[in-house]
Amino acid sequence: MAFNATTLSSAIGASDTSLQVASATGITAPNFTTGVGITYLFLESECMLVTSVSGTFIGVQRGYAGTPTAAHGVTCPVVAGLPTDFGPIVPSVKAQQDATPAGQMFGFAAPVASAATIVASGSLFHVTGTTATNIITPPAGFVEGQITIVADGVWTFTSSAVTNGIGMSGTVTSAKSAVTFFYDAATALWYPSRLA
To answer: What value, to the nearest 5°, has the Cα angle with vertex 139 and ends 175 and 174?
Structure first.
């Protein structure tokens, strides 16, 4: 089927489930059992699935395939067609806020003095001093994930098979370089990304 174009005869709100068009040519009531007569309507960036047709009054499912619902004004252009006419429906994304992964906080946290046991102040922080560390207590709210430590001096971390211990020994051989540790809650150990 080719596309059919018409316009709205009256404005619709963002939650309305029926609309009136100037012409219903090419807009058919669906038979979901056989898959015949399924029609999509596009109004601006919103896709609607036609659910019923009575003259020029059309029942619709709004925001079909994840497209954003919106109010549409009188004389808004309406494009009707079969699902195969439109191809894949990809909703436009105007704004997006990615979720912060678990255990990830951004920006440097307070520096931590080197010691046999240190408490991570965040997921990214400096260790001052050169005392060897063998236990890293995770930051508050941390379940599993990673931390990155910037060593301000030549700093050593040693293997320790205890809760919050370090899985392998290593040394940060250059001051002002970083090492990432991955925490596995199943083993309760930190695994360094590098050993030297």
So the answer is: 10
Question: CA-to-CA distance for 17 and 46, rounded, in angstroms?
Answer: 13
Closest CA to 1 of 100, 73, 86, 62: 86
3-class secondary structure, 64: helix
Place of tokens 């590098």: 194
Divide the 196 residues of the chain into consecutive groups of 10 and give the mean pLDDT of each group. Answer: 87 95 94 90 91 97 89 91 81 57 62 96 92 92 88 94 94 90 92 89
Looking up tokens 């971390």 gives 157
State the amino acid at position 46 in one-letter form. E
In the chain the first and final C-alpha atoms are separated, in Å, by 66
Residue 139 DSSP symbol: P
- The answer to whether 43 touches 8, Cβ cutoff 8 Å, is yes
Amino acid making up residue 1: M
Q: Has this prediction a pTM greater than 0.90?
A: no
Length of the chain: 196
Distance CA 56, CA 44 (A): 19
Strand 18-20 versus strand 57-61 pairing type: antiparallel
